[in-house]
Amino acid sequence: MDPLRSTVPAPLTEVRSSVEAALKAQGFGILTEVDLQATFQAKLGVAHEGHRILGVCSPSFAKRALDVDRDVALLLPCTVTLREVPGGTEVRVLDPEEAFQVAAPETRAQLAPLAGEVKALLAAAVAALRDA
After folding, report:
1. Contact predicate 5/126, CB 8 Å
2. d(Cα 3, Cα 117) in Å, to the nearest integer?
3. Considering the domain 5-131, what is its CATH architecture?
4. Cα separation of 93 and 79, whole Å?
C-alpha cells in the first residue's frame, strides 16, 4: 500500500474538506487550489472529471528547506491531488523525497532528513483519511 495514496469512498467536495482537516492536524495549510474540471470547461469547453490540485505548505518546513538552498522554492509547495474515480475520490501526494531528487546533490544530502519528516507527516494525513 502506498502511504501517500488512498481512495476515499466519498464525493470530491466532501473529501476536500477532510483532506484540509487532515493536513491541518499535521501542520500544513492549503496555499493554492486549481480546479481542473472548472478550468477545462471554462477555457476549453470540454468535460473532465472532478480533479483538483492543492499546493500545501508547512511554513516551518519551507523555511528550513529554503535556508539550505533558495532554489528549493522551485519545488514548493507540496502537491496533493484529488480526483474523482469509480468508488470515490483518489487522494495522492507527491513524495517530497522523490521531488527533492531534482535538487543539486549537496542540497539533496542536506534536505534528506527534512524530506523524510515531511513525508511522514503527509503520510499520517493520508492515513487519517483511510481511518475516518
Report:
1. yes
2. 14
3. 2-Layer Sandwich (3.30)
4. 6
Q: Is the peptide bond before 86 cis (omega within 30 degrees of 0)?
A: no
Q: CA-CA distance, 64 to 38, in Å (whole number)?
A: 35
Whole-prediction pTM value?
A: 0.94
3-state secondary structure of 7: strand
- pLDDT tens per residue across span 73-119: 999 999 999 999 999 999 999 999 999 999 999 999 999 999 999 99
Is residue 7 within 8 Å of residue 88, measured between CB atoms? yes
3-state secondary structure of 34: strand
Q: Which residues, 6+ apart, have CB-to-CB distance to 18 below 8 Å?
A: 8, 10, 129, 132
Residue ranges covered by each domain of the chain: 5-131
Q: Which three cell numbers stand for residue 89?
A: 475520490
Per DSSP, the three-state class of 5 is: strand
